Amino acid sequence: MKILDPPAVRRWARLAADALGRASAEIDALNVFPVADGDTGTNLHLTMLSAAEAVESLPDDVDVAVVWQTLSYGALVGARGNSGVIVSQALRGLAEVLKEGQDLRAGLLRAATLAREAVARPVEGTVLSVLESAARAVQDVEGDLPEVARRAAEEARAALRRTPEQLDVLARSGVVDAGGAGGAIVLETLAAVLTGSHTAHYDVPAPTARVSPMTEVGAGYEVMYLLDAEDAAVAGLRAELDAMGDSLVVVGGDGLWNVHVHVAEAGPAIEAGMKAGRPHRIRVTYLAERTHRGGAGRGVVAVAAGDGIAALFEECGAVVVRRAPGTRPTLPAMLAAIRQAGGEVAVLPNDEGVRAVAMAAAEVAREDGVAVSVLPTKATVQGLSALAVHDPLRRFDDDVVAMTDAAGHTRHGQLAVADREAVTSAGLCHPGDVLGLIDGDVAVIGRTLEHVATLVVDLMAAGGGELVTLVTGVDAPPDLADHVAAHLRRTRPEVDLVVYEGGQGGYPLLIGVE
Description:
The chain is of the alpha/beta class. The protein has 18 helices and 16 strands.
Protein backbone atom coordinates (compact mmCIF):
# COMPACT_ATOMS: atom_id res chain seq x y z
CA MET A 1 0.00 0.00 0.00
CA LYS A 2 1.68 3.20 -1.20
CA ILE A 3 -1.16 5.70 -0.78
CA LEU A 4 -3.93 6.40 1.69
CA ASP A 5 -6.83 6.18 -0.73
CA PRO A 6 -10.45 5.98 0.52
CA PRO A 7 -10.44 2.15 0.95
CA ALA A 8 -7.19 2.38 2.92
CA VAL A 9 -8.60 5.10 5.20
CA ARG A 10 -11.65 2.92 5.85
CA ARG A 11 -9.47 -0.10 6.63
CA TRP A 12 -7.28 1.92 8.97
CA ALA A 13 -10.25 3.38 10.86
CA ARG A 14 -11.80 -0.04 11.36
CA LEU A 15 -8.49 -1.72 12.27
CA ALA A 16 -7.73 1.03 14.79
CA ALA A 17 -11.22 0.82 16.32
CA ASP A 18 -11.02 -2.97 16.61
CA ALA A 19 -7.49 -2.89 18.06
CA LEU A 20 -8.53 -0.29 20.65
CA GLY A 21 -11.58 -2.39 21.47
CA ARG A 22 -9.41 -5.44 22.14
CA ALA A 23 -6.96 -3.38 24.21
CA SER A 24 -9.54 -1.24 26.04
CA ALA A 25 -9.44 -3.18 29.31
CA GLU A 26 -5.63 -3.10 29.39
CA ILE A 27 -5.59 0.64 28.71
CA ASP A 28 -8.30 1.24 31.32
CA ALA A 29 -6.02 -0.47 33.86
CA LEU A 30 -3.31 2.16 33.21
CA ASN A 31 -5.63 5.12 33.75
CA VAL A 32 -4.32 7.26 36.63
CA PHE A 33 -4.09 10.68 34.98
CA PRO A 34 -5.73 13.18 35.02
CA VAL A 35 -8.01 11.13 37.32
CA ALA A 36 -8.01 7.40 37.95
CA ASP A 37 -11.47 6.84 36.49
CA GLY A 38 -10.48 3.69 34.57
CA ASP A 39 -12.17 4.50 31.27
CA THR A 40 -9.52 5.87 28.90
CA GLY A 41 -9.35 2.67 26.85
CA THR A 42 -13.11 2.51 26.56
CA ASN A 43 -13.32 6.17 25.56
CA LEU A 44 -10.64 5.87 22.89
CA HIS A 45 -12.31 2.79 21.46
CA LEU A 46 -15.68 4.53 21.24
CA THR A 47 -14.10 7.63 19.69
CA MET A 48 -12.37 5.65 16.94
CA LEU A 49 -15.43 3.46 16.47
CA SER A 50 -17.51 6.56 15.74
CA ALA A 51 -14.95 7.66 13.15
CA ALA A 52 -14.87 4.21 11.54
CA GLU A 53 -18.63 3.92 11.33
CA ALA A 54 -18.84 7.40 9.79
CA VAL A 55 -16.48 6.58 6.90
CA GLU A 56 -18.02 3.14 6.40
CA SER A 57 -21.40 4.79 5.81
CA LEU A 58 -20.07 6.66 2.76
CA PRO A 59 -20.62 5.45 -0.82
CA ASP A 60 -17.68 3.60 -2.38
CA ASP A 61 -17.08 6.26 -5.04
CA VAL A 62 -16.45 9.31 -2.82
CA ASP A 63 -13.12 11.07 -3.17
CA VAL A 64 -10.36 11.09 -0.57
CA ALA A 65 -11.16 14.60 0.71
CA VAL A 66 -14.70 13.59 1.65
CA VAL A 67 -13.45 10.46 3.41
CA TRP A 68 -10.95 12.40 5.52
CA GLN A 69 -13.49 15.11 6.37
CA THR A 70 -16.00 12.45 7.39
CA LEU A 71 -13.42 10.63 9.51
CA SER A 72 -12.66 13.88 11.32
CA TYR A 73 -16.34 14.69 11.82
CA GLY A 74 -17.16 11.17 13.08
CA ALA A 75 -14.37 11.38 15.65
CA LEU A 76 -15.43 14.85 16.77
CA VAL A 77 -19.09 14.04 17.41
CA GLY A 78 -18.28 10.64 18.93
CA ALA A 79 -15.33 11.69 21.09
CA ARG A 80 -15.50 10.45 24.67
CA GLY A 81 -13.40 11.54 27.61
CA ASN A 82 -10.30 13.67 27.79
CA SER A 83 -8.11 11.42 25.64
CA GLY A 84 -10.85 10.74 23.11
CA VAL A 85 -11.36 14.44 22.49
CA ILE A 86 -7.59 14.97 22.10
CA VAL A 87 -7.27 12.09 19.63
CA SER A 88 -10.23 13.42 17.66
CA GLN A 89 -8.32 16.67 17.23
CA ALA A 90 -5.24 14.76 16.09
CA LEU A 91 -7.37 13.05 13.46
CA ARG A 92 -8.60 16.46 12.38
CA GLY A 93 -5.00 17.56 11.88
CA LEU A 94 -4.26 14.53 9.73
CA ALA A 95 -7.42 15.16 7.74
CA GLU A 96 -6.56 18.81 7.06
CA VAL A 97 -3.30 17.80 5.39
CA LEU A 98 -4.01 14.40 3.86
CA LYS A 99 -7.25 15.40 2.18
CA GLU A 100 -5.07 17.60 -0.05
CA GLY A 101 -2.29 15.07 -0.70
CA GLN A 102 -0.07 12.33 0.74
CA ASP A 103 2.46 14.23 2.90
CA LEU A 104 2.13 12.13 6.04
CA ARG A 105 5.07 13.97 7.66
CA ALA A 106 3.16 17.26 7.51
CA GLY A 107 -0.04 15.52 8.56
CA LEU A 108 1.51 14.08 11.71
CA LEU A 109 3.01 17.44 12.60
CA ARG A 110 -0.36 19.16 12.17
CA ALA A 111 -2.04 16.41 14.23
CA ALA A 112 0.36 16.93 17.13
CA THR A 113 0.00 20.72 16.94
CA LEU A 114 -3.81 20.71 16.99
CA ALA A 115 -3.90 18.15 19.80
CA ARG A 116 -1.68 20.34 22.00
CA GLU A 117 -3.61 23.51 21.16
CA ALA A 118 -6.84 21.81 22.23
CA VAL A 119 -5.67 21.34 25.83
CA ALA A 120 -5.95 24.32 28.14
CA ARG A 121 -3.04 23.21 30.34
CA PRO A 122 -0.84 20.74 28.41
CA VAL A 123 1.12 18.20 30.47
CA GLU A 124 4.16 16.22 29.30
CA GLY A 125 4.13 12.45 29.62
CA THR A 126 0.70 12.15 28.00
CA VAL A 127 -0.69 11.37 24.58
CA LEU A 128 0.48 14.87 23.58
CA SER A 129 4.10 13.84 24.12
CA VAL A 130 3.61 10.59 22.20
CA LEU A 131 2.09 12.37 19.19
CA GLU A 132 4.75 15.08 19.18
CA SER A 133 7.63 12.60 19.42
CA ALA A 134 6.22 10.58 16.53
CA ALA A 135 5.76 13.69 14.40
CA ARG A 136 9.26 15.03 15.07
CA ALA A 137 10.87 11.66 14.38
CA VAL A 138 9.60 11.49 10.80
CA GLN A 139 10.36 15.00 9.62
CA ASP A 140 13.73 13.95 8.15
CA VAL A 141 12.64 10.50 6.91
CA GLU A 142 13.12 10.34 3.17
CA GLY A 143 11.35 7.03 2.54
CA ASP A 144 7.93 6.48 1.03
CA LEU A 145 4.59 6.67 2.87
CA PRO A 146 4.83 3.19 4.47
CA GLU A 147 8.33 3.97 5.77
CA VAL A 148 7.14 7.24 7.32
CA ALA A 149 4.23 5.47 9.00
CA ARG A 150 6.46 2.65 10.27
CA ARG A 151 8.95 5.11 11.76
CA ALA A 152 6.16 7.12 13.41
CA ALA A 153 4.76 3.97 15.00
CA GLU A 154 8.17 2.93 16.31
CA GLU A 155 8.77 6.34 17.86
CA ALA A 156 5.27 6.44 19.36
CA ARG A 157 5.96 3.16 21.13
CA ALA A 158 9.35 4.45 22.37
CA ALA A 159 7.79 7.72 23.53
CA LEU A 160 5.10 5.78 25.38
CA ARG A 161 7.77 3.92 27.35
CA ARG A 162 9.30 7.29 28.34
CA THR A 163 6.08 8.76 29.76
CA PRO A 164 6.78 7.66 33.39
CA GLU A 165 10.01 9.70 33.21
CA GLN A 166 7.98 12.79 32.30
CA LEU A 167 4.99 12.51 34.64
CA ASP A 168 5.54 11.63 38.29
CA VAL A 169 2.09 10.15 38.93
CA LEU A 170 2.79 7.54 36.24
CA ALA A 171 6.13 6.60 37.80
CA ARG A 172 4.56 6.29 41.27
CA SER A 173 1.80 4.08 39.91
CA GLY A 174 4.08 1.91 37.80
CA VAL A 175 2.26 2.63 34.52
CA VAL A 176 2.75 4.29 31.17
CA ASP A 177 0.20 6.90 30.09
CA ALA A 178 -3.13 5.38 29.14
CA GLY A 179 -3.95 7.97 26.48
CA GLY A 180 -0.47 7.60 25.04
CA ALA A 181 -0.97 3.84 24.79
CA GLY A 182 -4.10 4.42 22.74
CA GLY A 183 -2.37 7.01 20.56
CA ALA A 184 0.44 4.55 19.86
CA ILE A 185 -2.09 1.93 18.74
CA VAL A 186 -3.70 4.42 16.36
CA LEU A 187 -0.32 5.05 14.71
CA GLU A 188 0.63 1.36 14.73
CA THR A 189 -2.55 0.41 12.91
CA LEU A 190 -1.88 3.14 10.35
CA ALA A 191 1.55 1.62 9.74
CA ALA A 192 0.01 -1.85 9.51
CA VAL A 193 -2.36 -0.75 6.75
CA LEU A 194 0.33 1.07 4.79
CA THR A 195 2.96 -1.68 5.09
CA GLY A 196 0.57 -4.57 4.51
CA SER A 197 1.20 -6.03 7.95
CA HIS A 198 -1.46 -8.24 9.55
CA THR A 199 -0.58 -7.61 13.18
CA ALA A 200 -3.46 -8.82 15.33
CA HIS A 201 -2.40 -7.63 18.77
CA TYR A 202 -0.82 -4.37 19.83
CA ASP A 203 1.09 -4.69 23.07
CA VAL A 204 -0.04 -2.53 26.00
CA PRO A 205 2.54 -2.41 28.84
CA ALA A 206 0.96 -3.79 32.02
CA PRO A 207 1.10 -1.87 35.31
CA THR A 208 4.10 -2.76 37.47
CA ALA A 209 2.32 -1.66 40.66
CA ARG A 210 -1.21 -1.72 42.01
CA VAL A 211 -3.13 1.30 40.70
CA SER A 212 -4.99 2.95 43.57
CA PRO A 213 -8.69 3.56 42.89
CA MET A 214 -9.98 7.12 42.93
CA THR A 215 -11.72 8.19 46.12
CA GLU A 216 -14.90 10.22 46.26
CA VAL A 217 -13.21 13.18 47.98
CA GLY A 218 -12.87 15.96 45.42
CA ALA A 219 -13.84 13.70 42.56
CA GLY A 220 -16.35 16.12 41.05
CA TYR A 221 -18.03 15.70 37.68
CA GLU A 222 -16.98 15.10 34.12
CA VAL A 223 -19.05 17.33 31.83
CA MET A 224 -19.10 16.80 28.07
CA TYR A 225 -21.27 18.27 25.35
CA LEU A 226 -21.32 19.15 21.71
CA LEU A 227 -21.71 22.87 21.15
CA ASP A 228 -23.10 24.76 18.19
CA ALA A 229 -21.38 28.14 18.50
CA GLU A 230 -19.62 30.82 16.51
CA ASP A 231 -15.85 30.47 16.61
CA ALA A 232 -15.52 33.89 18.23
CA ALA A 233 -17.54 32.77 21.27
CA VAL A 234 -15.26 29.84 22.09
CA ALA A 235 -12.35 31.84 23.50
CA GLY A 236 -14.59 33.25 26.24
CA LEU A 237 -16.00 29.81 26.96
CA ARG A 238 -12.50 28.35 27.32
CA ALA A 239 -11.53 31.06 29.82
CA GLU A 240 -14.71 30.59 31.87
CA LEU A 241 -14.40 26.79 32.03
CA ASP A 242 -10.68 26.96 32.76
CA ALA A 243 -11.46 29.04 35.85
CA MET A 244 -14.06 26.46 36.98
CA GLY A 245 -12.12 23.22 36.74
CA ASP A 246 -9.40 21.23 35.04
CA SER A 247 -8.82 18.63 32.28
CA LEU A 248 -10.33 21.21 29.91
CA VAL A 249 -10.32 20.28 26.24
CA VAL A 250 -12.30 22.18 23.62
CA VAL A 251 -11.94 21.03 20.01
CA GLY A 252 -13.71 21.59 16.71
CA GLY A 253 -14.38 24.51 14.43
CA ASP A 254 -16.69 25.78 11.71
CA GLY A 255 -19.55 26.13 14.20
CA LEU A 256 -19.34 22.68 15.91
CA TRP A 257 -17.28 22.03 19.05
CA ASN A 258 -16.73 19.21 21.51
CA VAL A 259 -16.30 20.38 25.10
CA HIS A 260 -14.81 18.33 27.96
CA VAL A 261 -14.05 19.50 31.51
CA HIS A 262 -13.83 18.21 35.08
CA VAL A 263 -15.59 20.50 37.54
CA ALA A 264 -16.83 20.54 41.12
CA GLU A 265 -20.40 21.40 40.01
CA ALA A 266 -21.85 20.44 36.63
CA GLY A 267 -24.54 23.12 36.32
CA PRO A 268 -22.29 26.16 35.84
CA ALA A 269 -20.26 24.36 33.14
CA ILE A 270 -23.42 23.66 31.15
CA GLU A 271 -24.69 27.22 31.67
CA ALA A 272 -21.39 28.53 30.29
CA GLY A 273 -22.03 26.54 27.14
CA MET A 274 -25.53 27.95 26.88
CA LYS A 275 -24.12 31.48 26.95
CA ALA A 276 -21.70 30.63 24.13
CA GLY A 277 -24.16 28.76 21.92
CA ARG A 278 -26.37 25.67 21.92
CA PRO A 279 -25.06 22.69 23.90
CA HIS A 280 -26.46 19.24 23.04
CA ARG A 281 -25.59 15.59 23.69
CA ILE A 282 -24.83 16.66 27.24
CA ARG A 283 -23.22 13.97 29.41
CA VAL A 284 -22.56 14.45 33.11
CA THR A 285 -20.75 11.74 35.08
CA TYR A 286 -19.97 11.74 38.78
CA LEU A 287 -16.38 10.56 38.51
CA ALA A 288 -16.28 8.44 41.66
CA GLU A 289 -19.15 6.29 40.39
CA ARG A 290 -16.79 4.73 37.89
CA THR A 291 -14.90 2.98 40.67
CA HIS A 292 -17.93 2.06 42.82
CA ARG A 293 -20.14 0.24 40.35
CA GLY A 294 -19.11 -3.23 41.50
CA GLY A 295 -21.60 -5.77 40.22
CA ALA A 296 -24.10 -3.17 39.06
CA GLY A 297 -22.38 -2.24 35.81
CA ARG A 298 -22.48 -3.59 32.26
CA GLY A 299 -20.56 -6.75 31.42
CA VAL A 300 -20.03 -9.51 28.89
CA VAL A 301 -19.59 -13.23 29.54
CA ALA A 302 -17.80 -15.25 26.86
CA VAL A 303 -17.35 -19.02 26.68
CA ALA A 304 -13.95 -20.12 25.36
CA ALA A 305 -12.46 -23.49 24.39
CA GLY A 306 -8.71 -22.76 24.43
CA ASP A 307 -6.31 -20.66 26.50
CA GLY A 308 -5.49 -18.30 23.64
CA ILE A 309 -9.16 -17.70 22.89
CA ALA A 310 -9.84 -17.11 26.59
CA ALA A 311 -7.02 -14.55 26.71
CA LEU A 312 -8.46 -12.71 23.71
CA PHE A 313 -11.86 -12.38 25.34
CA GLU A 314 -10.33 -11.34 28.66
CA GLU A 315 -8.27 -8.64 26.90
CA CYS A 316 -11.55 -7.21 25.62
CA GLY A 317 -12.92 -7.04 29.16
CA ALA A 318 -15.16 -10.12 29.13
CA VAL A 319 -15.61 -12.51 32.03
CA VAL A 320 -14.53 -15.83 30.52
CA VAL A 321 -15.95 -19.29 31.16
CA ARG A 322 -13.49 -21.92 30.01
CA ARG A 323 -14.53 -25.30 28.64
CA ALA A 324 -12.72 -28.27 27.16
CA PRO A 325 -13.34 -28.91 23.42
CA GLY A 326 -16.48 -30.98 22.91
CA THR A 327 -17.83 -30.24 26.40
CA ARG A 328 -20.23 -27.74 27.93
CA PRO A 329 -19.54 -25.54 30.96
CA THR A 330 -21.51 -26.32 34.09
CA LEU A 331 -24.56 -24.31 35.10
CA PRO A 332 -22.89 -23.09 38.35
CA ALA A 333 -19.85 -21.86 36.37
CA MET A 334 -22.06 -19.95 33.91
CA LEU A 335 -24.17 -18.47 36.71
CA ALA A 336 -21.12 -17.36 38.70
CA ALA A 337 -19.68 -15.61 35.64
CA ILE A 338 -22.96 -13.77 34.94
CA ARG A 339 -23.19 -12.58 38.54
CA GLN A 340 -19.56 -11.43 38.43
CA ALA A 341 -20.03 -9.53 35.15
CA GLY A 342 -22.56 -6.99 36.43
CA GLY A 343 -26.19 -5.96 36.55
CA GLU A 344 -26.62 -5.93 32.75
CA VAL A 345 -24.92 -8.84 31.02
CA ALA A 346 -24.59 -10.04 27.42
CA VAL A 347 -23.63 -13.71 27.18
CA LEU A 348 -21.66 -15.08 24.21
CA PRO A 349 -22.02 -18.89 24.18
CA ASN A 350 -19.91 -19.19 20.98
CA ASP A 351 -21.16 -22.73 20.37
CA GLU A 352 -24.61 -24.07 19.58
CA GLY A 353 -24.27 -26.76 22.26
CA VAL A 354 -23.47 -24.22 24.98
CA ARG A 355 -26.54 -22.08 24.35
CA ALA A 356 -28.89 -24.22 26.44
CA VAL A 357 -26.67 -23.96 29.52
CA ALA A 358 -26.32 -20.21 28.98
CA MET A 359 -30.10 -19.79 28.71
CA ALA A 360 -30.66 -21.76 31.92
CA ALA A 361 -28.09 -19.70 33.82
CA ALA A 362 -29.65 -16.50 32.48
CA GLU A 363 -33.07 -17.51 33.80
CA VAL A 364 -31.67 -18.04 37.30
CA ALA A 365 -29.75 -14.75 37.19
CA ARG A 366 -32.88 -12.84 36.14
CA GLU A 367 -34.57 -14.01 39.33
CA ASP A 368 -31.80 -12.15 41.18
CA GLY A 369 -32.57 -8.96 39.26
CA VAL A 370 -29.78 -9.21 36.66
CA ALA A 371 -30.70 -8.16 33.11
CA VAL A 372 -29.26 -10.92 30.89
CA SER A 373 -29.35 -11.45 27.13
CA VAL A 374 -27.90 -14.60 25.55
CA LEU A 375 -26.67 -13.73 22.06
CA PRO A 376 -26.91 -16.28 19.20
CA THR A 377 -23.15 -16.65 18.69
CA LYS A 378 -22.44 -20.11 17.29
CA ALA A 379 -18.66 -19.76 16.91
CA THR A 380 -15.66 -18.08 18.49
CA VAL A 381 -15.21 -15.70 15.56
CA GLN A 382 -18.80 -14.49 15.95
CA GLY A 383 -18.15 -13.83 19.62
CA LEU A 384 -15.05 -11.79 18.75
CA SER A 385 -17.05 -9.73 16.25
CA ALA A 386 -19.80 -9.10 18.79
CA LEU A 387 -17.37 -8.06 21.49
CA ALA A 388 -15.58 -5.68 19.10
CA VAL A 389 -18.71 -3.49 18.85
CA HIS A 390 -19.71 -3.75 22.53
CA ASP A 391 -20.40 -0.26 23.90
CA PRO A 392 -20.95 -0.12 27.68
CA LEU A 393 -22.26 3.45 27.37
CA ARG A 394 -25.15 2.53 25.03
CA ARG A 395 -28.57 1.51 26.31
CA PHE A 396 -28.37 -2.20 27.11
CA ASP A 397 -30.98 -3.20 24.52
CA ASP A 398 -29.25 -1.15 21.82
CA ASP A 399 -25.91 -2.71 22.73
CA VAL A 400 -27.36 -6.20 22.45
CA VAL A 401 -28.83 -5.39 19.03
CA ALA A 402 -25.49 -4.04 17.77
CA MET A 403 -23.56 -7.05 19.06
CA THR A 404 -26.10 -9.48 17.60
CA ASP A 405 -25.93 -7.72 14.25
CA ALA A 406 -22.12 -7.92 14.19
CA ALA A 407 -22.21 -11.63 15.00
CA GLY A 408 -24.87 -12.26 12.36
CA HIS A 409 -22.75 -10.63 9.67
CA THR A 410 -19.80 -12.92 10.45
CA ARG A 411 -19.69 -16.23 8.57
CA HIS A 412 -17.84 -18.92 10.47
CA GLY A 413 -15.81 -21.87 9.31
CA GLN A 414 -13.32 -24.34 10.68
CA LEU A 415 -10.99 -27.15 9.70
CA ALA A 416 -11.17 -30.60 11.23
CA VAL A 417 -9.47 -33.94 10.55
CA ALA A 418 -11.79 -36.91 10.02
CA ASP A 419 -11.27 -39.79 12.45
CA ARG A 420 -13.56 -42.25 10.64
CA GLU A 421 -15.27 -42.89 7.33
CA ALA A 422 -18.52 -40.98 6.98
CA VAL A 423 -20.95 -39.53 4.47
CA THR A 424 -20.95 -35.73 4.58
CA SER A 425 -22.72 -32.99 2.66
CA ALA A 426 -19.55 -32.73 0.52
CA GLY A 427 -19.28 -36.48 -0.12
CA LEU A 428 -17.61 -39.49 1.45
CA CYS A 429 -14.66 -38.81 3.76
CA HIS A 430 -12.03 -41.23 5.06
CA PRO A 431 -9.91 -41.19 8.22
CA GLY A 432 -7.20 -38.55 7.90
CA ASP A 433 -9.11 -36.42 5.41
CA VAL A 434 -9.22 -32.69 6.14
CA LEU A 435 -12.76 -31.36 6.39
CA GLY A 436 -13.58 -27.73 5.72
CA LEU A 437 -16.81 -26.68 7.44
CA ILE A 438 -18.75 -23.49 6.69
CA ASP A 439 -21.56 -22.42 9.02
CA GLY A 440 -21.59 -25.91 10.52
CA ASP A 441 -21.74 -27.98 7.30
CA VAL A 442 -18.89 -29.79 5.56
CA ALA A 443 -18.20 -27.88 2.34
CA VAL A 444 -14.74 -29.16 1.32
CA ILE A 445 -12.84 -32.43 1.69
CA GLY A 446 -9.10 -32.49 0.98
CA ARG A 447 -5.77 -34.01 1.95
CA THR A 448 -3.87 -31.05 3.45
CA LEU A 449 -4.76 -28.34 5.91
CA GLU A 450 -3.19 -25.64 3.73
CA HIS A 451 -5.17 -26.56 0.62
CA VAL A 452 -8.50 -26.91 2.40
CA ALA A 453 -7.95 -23.65 4.33
CA THR A 454 -7.55 -21.63 1.13
CA LEU A 455 -10.58 -23.30 -0.46
CA VAL A 456 -12.75 -22.55 2.58
CA VAL A 457 -11.60 -18.92 2.77
CA ASP A 458 -12.32 -18.48 -0.96
CA LEU A 459 -15.82 -19.92 -0.60
CA MET A 460 -16.60 -17.82 2.47
CA ALA A 461 -15.29 -14.61 0.91
CA ALA A 462 -16.98 -15.16 -2.45
CA GLY A 463 -20.15 -13.49 -1.22
CA GLY A 464 -18.23 -10.41 -0.05
CA GLY A 465 -16.25 -9.52 3.02
CA GLU A 466 -13.71 -6.99 4.22
CA LEU A 467 -12.06 -8.82 7.11
CA VAL A 468 -10.85 -12.42 7.45
CA THR A 469 -10.08 -13.69 10.95
CA LEU A 470 -7.98 -16.82 11.55
CA VAL A 471 -7.70 -18.50 14.96
CA THR A 472 -5.04 -21.20 15.00
CA GLY A 473 -5.35 -24.30 17.18
CA VAL A 474 -2.81 -26.47 18.99
CA ASP A 475 -2.60 -28.85 16.00
CA ALA A 476 -2.07 -26.14 13.37
CA PRO A 477 1.25 -26.22 11.46
CA PRO A 478 3.37 -23.13 12.24
CA ASP A 479 3.02 -21.80 8.68
CA LEU A 480 -0.70 -22.46 8.16
CA ALA A 481 -1.79 -18.85 8.77
CA ASP A 482 1.10 -17.54 6.67
CA HIS A 483 0.00 -19.79 3.80
CA VAL A 484 -3.53 -18.36 3.93
CA ALA A 485 -2.17 -14.80 4.23
CA ALA A 486 -0.03 -15.24 1.12
CA HIS A 487 -3.00 -16.66 -0.78
CA LEU A 488 -5.17 -13.68 0.18
CA ARG A 489 -2.51 -11.20 -0.85
CA ARG A 490 -2.48 -12.78 -4.30
CA THR A 491 -6.21 -13.23 -4.78
CA ARG A 492 -7.97 -10.64 -2.58
CA PRO A 493 -5.47 -7.89 -1.65
CA GLU A 494 -8.31 -5.58 -0.58
CA VAL A 495 -9.26 -7.88 2.30
CA ASP A 496 -7.76 -7.33 5.77
CA LEU A 497 -6.52 -10.30 7.76
CA VAL A 498 -6.03 -10.77 11.50
CA VAL A 499 -4.51 -13.89 13.04
CA TYR A 500 -4.80 -15.10 16.63
CA GLU A 501 -3.23 -18.04 18.42
CA GLY A 502 -6.33 -19.61 19.95
CA GLY A 503 -4.81 -22.78 21.34
CA GLN A 504 -8.06 -24.68 20.81
CA GLY A 505 -8.09 -28.44 20.38
CA GLY A 506 -10.12 -30.34 17.80
CA TYR A 507 -10.03 -27.62 15.15
CA PRO A 508 -6.61 -26.66 13.74
CA LEU A 509 -8.11 -23.49 12.30
CA LEU A 510 -11.17 -21.33 12.94
CA ILE A 511 -12.15 -18.88 10.20
CA GLY A 512 -14.37 -15.81 10.23
CA VAL A 513 -15.35 -13.55 7.33
CA GLU A 514 -17.20 -10.28 7.88
